[in-house]
Fold these 2 entries.
Entry 1:
Amino acid sequence: MDTLELISDKILQHNDFILLGHVEPDGDCIGSLFSLKWALDKLGKNSLVLLDSPPEERFGFLSIGDDDYRLFEQFKPDLADGAEAVYIALDAGDLDRLGPGKELLSNHFLINIDHHPGNPGYGNLNYINPEMAAVGEILYYLFLEMGLSLEQKIGSGLALAIISDTGGFRYQNTRAATYRIMAELTEVGVDIYRLNQGIYGNYSYQSLKLKGLVLANLELSREQKTAWIIVNRAMLEETGAAPEDVTGLVSYARDIRGVEVGVIFVEIAPREIKVGLRSKQYCPVNQIAAFFGGGGHVRAAGCKIKKELAQTVDLVLSKVQDYV
Ligand SMILES: [Mn+2]
């Protein structure tokens, strides 16, 4: 693995950057991408965040400007002369997670910054540290290395990243250093209350109706160690919800008293099932996801399986059974 010092040097030597995250970007991904973008702005460098679709409404408190990003479909590599731009991938555990971004890499220099344990180091420079709760934490140390002083806007991105990936400081990945970083972010003016309102007090009516429908179908294994939620096409169509609106509901399954593993099965298309896995204390769900070609963290992972819904449920639950 390369050092943050090396990555800092590389960034300081260049002027044009393309920033890539993962498909269906979460709070860590969005917060990290824009915090890095605004840090590069502050250093007088050109950079552009590339996204699949505009940032979700729930990230509105970050005040992301229309000029801060481009959609892949609008992107023409006119920043510098193409060959000059350094690409930076954030929070993407493997190349496929970059989605359309993967096709743009060709001969560009790529810096890969991540905290997923399975990241194979697909960049020219790689900093992968699974000890870090969020990529936002890694960026905090990178900014220190770059001699950049934090301010409210950049800090808000880091805070969103850290709050999201620690589940509001509830997950095992929360370290003493996490709180120290947060204390510092608060000191530079990051409004944690407003941020939490944005993340947790900002549901759409539709999404809560969907939550009700989905939770009514919660199931529990006989020995009560595994709970799961099945979301079929009909439920998605009835509520008009997108698959990404529901995958987060897996935490309700995990959070049942006595349950170790929570699973959600979302039928995103016929014979295409998105599986989300969460564990509480000991089950390495990244191993289960990897068995089916996916990946993730020890306590949060996922995969896609191209089989019938019922068959997928049986397969995954019997694999989970080996661990709980
Ligand atoms: Mn992350």
Entry 2:
Amino acid sequence: MIPILLYHQIADLPRHRDPRNLAVSPELFERQMAYLHRNGYRCMQLSQVVRSIIEGLPQVKKAFVLTFDDGYKDVYSTVWPILSDFGFTATIFFVTGCAGRESAWEGQSGSLAAPLLSWSDARDMSRAGLTFGSHTITHPYLTRLEHAQAARELRESRLMLRDQLDVEVDLFSYPYSAYTPAVQQMVADSGYIAACGGDRGRWGRFNLWRAQCTGKDSWLSFAFKASGQYYRFLQLKRRVPTRQSPRHAARTN
Ligand SMILES: [Zn+2]
């Protein structure tokens, strides 16, 4: 499996504004990208990887995927120039109802709130070749919503991205990595071809595992995540199959 790396904010944040240490400093992020570049890792589009999973093609060796959840403003101001320097690409999972505002959802409000991309920022990046996927409209726990409300979060966020960016949108990531089989089915029914989670639960096209990179990562832990060894470790730990399950393989819409 090709490692899918997950980042949130790329910013120097004081501890009280980032108690879970999710933010990675711009300096560390740049050094991590330089490490991948120097060591000949190939940065792939998430959609390419998904297509190879769907078609059962052999996976490219020494490759990785970059994803950024929520769509913080620093993806535009800090990350994009660094990616351009190395010729890397990324997928940004955007909270579409919060464009141009601050993150204010559970776990990210008050003093932890941070500015998010505007639609104009998103359009600039999309036109330059970066990919946008949906991370819902309001960043709820989909598992706690009524069916109709969850379906609206999935469908309308996709339509908003499509209308604002004028591109097809077929990738999704679960807020808080929270999903159930019913939510996964709704994601498929809403027209997405794949969804990213964290590193929990059964791996599949609608729960692609991701390795979260944080401010706590050492060189060793980052190299472990980027090399794919982390996935092998998870597989051994979980002893779960990593081939597409037939139930999800049947869904192609
Ligand atoms: Zn999120």
